[in-house]
Amino acid sequence: MTKEDLFLFLETKYRQYNRPEFIKTDPVSVPHGFSQREDIEIAGFLTAVISWGNRSSIIADANRMFSMMGCPPYEFLLKANDRDLEIFRAFYHRTFNGEDCIFFLRSLQHIYKNLGGLQGAFGNINETGIKESISRFRRIFLELKHFPRLEKHLADPSKGASAKRILMFLRWMVRNDGLGVDFGLWKNVSSASLMCPLDIHSGNVSRKLGLLQRKANDWKAVEELTDNLRQFDPRDPVKYDFALFGIGALEGIR
């Protein structure tokens, strides 16, 4: 198809899938269960961290994690002691086990009590660029003593990882198109600074549409895909994540 045809196709699919009707079957439904900013951030981040595998299992396990807290996540983190955190030793989602969960909660507690919250931990995304911001966040998040094995749950784009789950979380927090799916809480971060989350579904569709030539789903592929999407909307290229994921995961096009 021509560039104009591709633009119209992406716009149509973006509008088809960027709708509140699709929230309930997507992991973004979990942070939508909260109303306070900090609760949405924490719920969004932890849900994104375990967002791999079957989507219904992701949603069920994320909701189970937050029900174990017994109160909204921000309130829980402010008051939780070691004894309170021990109950999460029984939590797991695929390879994300109880020890991982306890560390993630401790690190989030440290970030909210001492560093101004998740947005502050990412720094100035507009100025430094999203790759450096993610690497900065990862260094801060892993400052507390931990088992090296759990570092795999936070991808590092400086080592070539696509960082799909972190990019998805940032999309949720930053984009604000008024359509009710993404939250737009981080108002001083430009949507133009975001990079498109990339997984097997969006990667395969992107290659079929000629938006991606690179074979590996790594950080270089994220940059290539996002650069191409900027040709269609330089101010908000990541909106087409809805189109690419919907075509691949929901329509089953490989």
Question: What would you note in describing this structure?
Answer:
The two termini are 18 Å apart. The relative contact order is 0.13. Helix 11 packs across helix 13. The longest helix is centred in the middle third of the chain and has 17 residues. The protein has 254 residues and is mainly α. The model has no long low-confidence stretch (mean pLDDT 96). It has one domain. The chain is globular, with a radius of gyration of 18 Å.
Helix content: 40-55%
Would you identify the regions where 5 or more consecutive residues have pLDDT less than 50? Answer: none
> If helices are DSSP runs of H or I spanning 4 or more residues, what is the number of helices?
13
Instruction: Please identify the structural class as seen in this structure.
Output: mainly alpha
Measured between the Cα atoms of the first and last residue, the distance is: 18 Å
Q: How many E strands? A: 0
Quick structural gist:
The protein has 254 residues and is mainly α. It is built from 13 helices and no strands. The two termini are 18 Å apart.
Characteristic key phrases:
single chain, 254 residues, mainly alpha, globular
Write the layout of secondary structure elements.
Layout: H1 3-17, H2 37-49, H3 55-69, H4 73-79, H5 82-86, H6 98-114, H7 118-122, H8 125-128, H9 130-141, H10 164-174, H11 200-208, H12 219-229, H13 241-250
